[in-house]
Amino acid sequence: PRSRPQPQSQPRSQPQPQQPLPQRQQNHKQSQNPSHTAPISLQTIIRDKVDVSQLSVKTIKGILKENCIDYSKMVEKYELIERMEILIKWAKHEMSSKAGEISDDGLCRICCDAQSNCLFMDCGHMCTCLDCGKKLEETKNECPICRETIIKIIRVFRA
Length: 159
Description:
Layout: H1 5-13, H2 15-18, H3 20-32, H4 34-37, H5 42-48, H6 57-66, H7 77-96, E1 118-121, H8 130-139, E2 152-155
Antiparallel strand pairs: 1-2
Helix pairs in contact: 6-7
Protein name: RING-type domain-containing protein
Keywords: Metal-binding, Zinc, Zinc-finger
Organism: Rhizophagus irregularis (strain DAOM 181602 / DAOM 197198 / MUCL 43194)
């Protein structure tokens, strides 16, 4: 009776080392393709002059969401691409404009470096840049002007 449990335990121990091998191979395959592991940013798209039409719908939606751009009513990929191209155009415009050209009332009230370009809902105040607005939403979640709760942040493009 003692000899029977030993042979049964050996076959069970043999498959265990074999099971992790496919997982290692899968991880190796994933690491070879960086597009699946690292999300692309708006700055990377602009810097590397990436063709937006080659990006996946999921990637485009992620970038639009990150930049507080509403895409909920867009069904077709070409609509998302058009919205993305507008975002890129305005991002390039913001990068090219110098801080000295921005009037004091147009500066972010938090960092005083970037142009204020996000609107807080429900109060409607537009007093921060997108980066500071997101940080406020994550930490205090209230408008720095009126202290009303931030329901949503909307990115604004100035003419």
